[in-house]
Amino acid sequence: MQKNDFIRIKYTAKIKEGDIQFDNSDNMPLVVGANWVMKPIDDALLSMNVSEKKTVEIPPGEAYGPRSDKMVKTIPLAEFKKHGQKPVPGMVMNMDGKAGKILSVSGGRVRVDFNHPLAGKTLIYNIEIKKKIETPEEKIKTLINLYTQTDKAKINVVIKEEEVDIDIPPLINSSYLLLIISTSGY
Q1: Spacing of C-alpha 18 from chain mean position
Q2: Which of 98, 176, 105, 128 is nearest to 30 (CA)?
């Protein structure tokens, strides 16, 4: 593969410690080298061919970083009550744009862990390149389906010299698509 190739991959993602699977896909589209995935995965894809399989081990420093005690905060219970919330351990909440998991509620205080759930974990990705997307029409359809999450939508793309005609189902926001396509260079 080369940088900016459009491909579809199959992958499973696991936490090395405990062999716990946390993600998978049978047909994920992506652009190689476009920072859509972690750098070690992009690097591996650049050295692969269609139908090739590879296992990539990603240490915490190249994934979601190390766990940090500084990311565990104690928040007064009164803050939650002000917003009509009743915190319970395990609950995921959002504060100032940061997601956190409530660890404990005790003595009028709430301990919240703002570390990413995969921080401090070594990740194992088993990847296989299923297909290389070759034509400009297929690439445009892939981008539309990816950003609108409408993989089954009937989208017709016709390229005529320097003009592209795209027939889009009525439930897809076409002005949003123009922004996606123009910023993607297509």
Answers
A1: 22
A2: 128
pLDDT, average across residues 31-60: 96
Residue 151 has pLDDT above 70, yes or no: no
Q: How far is CA 63 from CA 30, 72, 160, in A?
A: 18, 19, 42
Tokens of 152: 């089954």
Question: What per-residue confidence (pLDDT) applies to 17?
Answer: 94
The amino acid present at 57, given as its one-letter code, is: E
Please give the residue range of the domain that contains residue 169.
135-186
Note whether 60 and 125 are same-domain residues. yes
181: its two tokens: 């396509």
Clarify whether residues 126 and 36 are in a common domain: yes
| Structural contact between residues 80 and 88, judged by C-beta atoms closer than 8 angstroms | no
Give the separation between CA 42 and CA 184, rounded to whole angstroms. Answer: 18
CB 93 within 8 A of CB 112: yes
Helix (H) or strand (E) holding 46: helix 39-46
The β-bridge partners of 160 are 163
Query: Which range, 73-77, 163-167, 173-177, has the best average confidence (pLDDT)?
Result: 73-77
Q: Check residue 70 and report its DSSP letter.
A: G
**H/E element, 183:** helix 174-184
CA dist list (Å): 32 to 25, 53, 133, 139, 146: 16, 15, 11, 13, 15
| pLDDT of residue 183 exceeding 70 | no
The number of distinct structural domains making up the chain is 3
